[in-house]
Design brief:
alpha+beta, Porin, 2 domains, 14-stranded antiparallel β-barrel, globular
Length: 333
């Protein structure tokens, strides 16, 4: 009951402040089962290591619509520390963007079943505009004698996530540094980055022995851009298979399904449908992810250790009780 109150209270208090925290890079719906895609600070929250491959195709009715290839991984390096990496290539007609990042996460145990994750990361971007594919006047001085505009840029980010059993809440800045305005030097192809803030809250509720409900709310705010809010709910069956639904305030709904195919391999698919604007005529969006998990996290190891000790303790008490009963019977005889 207390976790439900914390979950609802966290959502209300955060949204009322007006500081609802957007996204200037490709979105994904699959952070619901691949939390590293939402925040690298989540490394180690579910497993000691994992890697995921993701493909997303937006607005399939439009030619040259956005297409994203993504990869991320994280792994345990000892002493409550995790390293992670992410790479994606995003293509939209004549525009391409590549991102590569490395992250470091430290996992601090605050109390029994309570953890605080702190993550920092650095990213490098390569931005390309293919000028040779522009339909226009080839003698235009802006594009004359140019095949493409390209530029390397850098940025950083950080995040804090608090875990208490199945409850979690996090806040951070995926894009920490604001760059200069775009295209200050057209020949070098500079691109602008705005500061980005992100907040999320979620919990997993046990509805029955084989059924769980996991609601998650994510709020993103990028300077000079509209706030993006995701509200989702996933039903998890036997901790092996799941069905999910998501609503985004940009008039998008998404339906997804997935599961654990083998001991460590996971597959997830989702379909987005637009309710208005460009999303309505875009023909929907497809996204598929293949993931592999390995190793239990430290919290699971602690639980297993305590259970073993408890069993041994109960066995010792049972032996002691049997000896007392035997001595009493011997004295009576």
């Amino acid at each position: 009951m207390r976790q439900i109150q914390l979950f609802v209270l966290g959502i209300i208090s955060f949204l009322i402040t007006g500081q609802a925290l957007g996204q200037q890079f490709p979105l994904t719906d699959h952070y619901l089962f691949n939390p590293y895609a939402l925040s690298p600070a989540s490394a180690g929250s579910r497993e000691k290591g994992a890697f995921f491959f993701n493909y997303r195709k937006d607005w399939i009715n439009f030619g040259n619509s956005p297409e994203t290839f993504r990869f991320n991984t994280h792994f345990h390096i000892g002493n409550n520390m995790y390293l992670g990496a992410e790479a994606f290539m995003d293509e939209v007609d004549i525009f391409e963007r590549f991102k590569g990042s490395m992250s470091y996460t430290y996992r601090l145990q605050m109390a029994e079943a309570q953890y605080l994750h702190f993550g920092i990361w650095g990213s490098v971007y390569q931005n390309i505009i293919r000028v040779d594919e522009i339909y226009g006047n080839p003698d235009d001085p802006l594009i004359r004698n140019l095949d493409q505009l390209t530029k390397m840029t850098y940025n950083a980010g950080f995040s804090l996530i608090y875990y208490n059993n199945a409850f979690e809440v996090g806040i951070g800045m995926p894009t920490l540094l604001r760059t200069k305005d775009a295209y200050l030097d057209i020949s070098q192809g500079n691109f602008a980055f705005e500061q980005e803030f992100q907040f999320h809250i979620g919990n997993t509720f046990d509805l029955s022995p084989g059924l769980q409900l996991m609601p998650v709310v994510v709020v993103r705010k990028t300077s000079n851009q509209p706030t993006i809010i995701d509200a989702s709910a996933s039903f998890i069956f036997g901790e092996k298979f799941w069905l999910s639904g998501l609503y985004r305030n940009s008039k998008v709904i998404a339906l997804g399904l997935g599961g654990e195919l083998f001991n460590s391999m996971n597959l997830n698919y989702s379909y987005e449908l637009g309710l208005g604007g460009i999303h309505y005529d875009g023909g929907g969006t497809h996204e598929i992810t293949l993931g592999f998990r390995f190793g239990q996290n430290d919290k699971d190891d602690v639980k297993e250790y305590k259970q073993k000790n408890k069993k041994q303790k109960n066995k010792r008490y049972m032996l002691h009780d049997y000896q007392q009963m035997y001595e009493q019977k011997y004295r009576r005889d």
